[in-house]
Specification:
This protein is of the alpha+beta class. It has helices at about 5-30, 175-205, and strands at about 40-45, 65, 70-75, 80-85, 95-100, 110, 120-125, 125-130, 130-135, 135-140, 150-155, 165-170. The chain has 2 domains: about 5-30 and about 180-205; about 40-170, Jelly Rolls, CATH 2.60.120. Strand 7 and strand 8 form a beta hairpin. Helix 1 (about 5-30) packs antiparallel against helix 2 (about 175-205). The protein starts with a helix and ends with a helix.
């Protein structure tokens, strides 16, 4: 490779690196200054296909506590589980707000109200009820319920699929839209950089 080609390649590499850094900077600057997720408490237990959520004081030994803010693999032997989530301070965000479930994969998620009625259901592109499809997560929309101190109940069905580690967050709808847009911007910038690098490699392969 002659000196001119080396200089051209060096310039392209430098431009790609600077472009990547600039994309990351732009995404980070878009972060909302005052946004914060609601601290959650969670517990789960194995479930059967037709059973109803058990009251908190029934079969307490069956419930296992977990940290909703951390990725946790919830995969009982039967492939189904009930998850209960509560706001740590008892107060949910002001409506409208969303409950996000990260890394659901092929698992089927069914959200129930306190009376056991189905509010929404989601499974890899199939959504019923108040569900917002997100990038890398599923978001259940709340425009009124639940009230202060209420418990959210989520049924997870991972039969015949690989159960991924789940993480949960509760935030206002505007904060959700901003964070989802940041994720999309970063993914788009990364894809653009990879395509540019592939094009450079193709050009030099033809020389």
């Amino acid at each position: 490779m002659n000196a001119r080609a080396r200089d051209w390649l060096h310039g392209w590499r430098h431009g790609l690196v600077m472009g990547a850094l600039l994309a990351c900077l732009v995404v980070s600057l878009q972060a909302p200054c005052g946004a914060a997720e609601i601290a959650l408490q969670g517990q789960w237990r194995a479930a059967q296909s037709a059973d109803a959520p058990a009251p908190p004081d029934a079969a307490a030994a069956q419930w296992q506590s977990f940290a909703p803010a951390r990725f946790t693999r919830i995969a009982p032997a039967g492939g189904q589980a009930w998850i209960e989530l509560r706001a740590q301070d008892g107060a949910w965000p002001a409506a409208p707000w969303v409950l996000s479930v990260f890394n659901a994969g092929l698992q089927q998620l069914t959200l129930h109200d306190a009376r056991g009625q189905i509010l929404a259901q989601a499974q890899l592109g199939r959504y019923e009820g108040r569900v917002w499809p997100g990038h890398g997560r599923v978001a259940f929309l709340f425009d009124g319920e639940p009230g202060p101190g209420a418990t959210l109940r989520l049924h997870v069905d991972s039969r015949h699929v690989i159960a991924g580690a789940l993480r949960f967050s509760a935030e206002s709808a505007p904060d959700f839209l901003r964070s989802d847009a940041r994720w999309l911007a970063l993914a788009s910038a990364s894809l653009g950089i990879m395509l540019a690098m592939a094009l450079i490699a193709l050009v030099f392969a033809q020389r």
